Amino acid sequence: MGDLLTDIYLSEPALRLVIAVFIGGAIGFDRAYRGRAAGFRTHILVCLASTVLMLMMDFPWLGIHTDYTELVRVDPTRMAQGIMTGIGFLGAGVIMQDKQSVRGLTTAASIWVTAAIGIMIGAGFYSAAFAAAILTLITLAVFNRLIDVLPIRHYALLVMSFKRHECLSEDEVRQLLKQQKTVISNLTYKLDDDGNVMTYRMTVRSTHRDYIRNIAQQCLKLDHLQGFTLQPLGD
């Protein structure tokens, strides 16, 4: 009977590690599918590492060979705090910022929640871990589709360059974009190429992505346009 209990006791850590690989991989697959830098393997390793560290707290007697184990006191919450602090640095590494936008926030959040799920697995809270994993996958996969359905404002950076003497006026630019059901903000001017090229730089806003895509098609029809950049903003 004692050997059976020992086998069960020793198999429990292995079960938790397998579950960590499965759940971490499921969350990471969504990020890999969307071409994010931190994808399938990264999320597996994060979840697995969190589980391993929590196993050290939940099964301390496996590594302590002494007759005075009753004198040893462990606090799993301290290990959890250390894990989440370390994951914060990893999450910061996938966030990229330029002058116009910040990218990678969702991936950083997914790494953070994967670590938290790994902690729950390592502590043996299977039902809570699976529930959190399902809700995380719903948030990443299903809710992502809602963005294209809900009336959410979409932003993009638009840069338009004209020859100085063939440049559209500000009112003409505003009227052109108004036809595409977009709103202009933060409009700036810049004179380049020794005063020969006039550049408009602005943020455009619309309630639908297609309206912003139509701006590119409209810009291609402008004969005097030297060049343009249309960069969606957001994650």
Give the tally of β-strands: 6
In spatial order, strands of the major sheet run 4-5-3-6
Quaternary structure annotation: single chain
Q: What's the main sheet like?
A: 4 strands, antiparallel
Round the Cα radius of gyration to an integer and report it.
27 Å
Low-confidence runs? none
Measured between the Cα atoms of the first and last residue, the distance is 56 Å
Q: Name the structural class.
A: alpha+beta
The geometry reads as: elongated
How much helical structure, as a percent, in the residues? 55-70%
Tally the structural domains: 2
Mean pLDDT reading:
76
Provide a count of the helices.
7
Beta-strand fraction estimate: 15-25%
The run of helices and strands is HHHEEHHEHEEHE
Summarize the structure.
The protein is α+β, with helices and mostly antiparallel strands. The chain is 55% helix and 18% strand. Strand 4 and strand 5 form a beta hairpin.
Structure, described:
With 235 residues, this protein is of the alpha+beta class. The protein has two domains: 145 residues, no CATH class; 80 residues, ACT domain (Alpha-Beta Plaits, 2-Layer Sandwich), CATH 3.30.70. A four-stranded antiparallel sheet has the order 4-5-3-6, covered by helices on one side. A two-stranded antiparallel ribbon has the order 1-2. Helix 1 packs antiparallel against helix 4, helix 2 runs parallel beside helix 4 and helix 4 packs antiparallel against helix 5. It starts with a helix and ends with a strand. The mean pLDDT is 76.
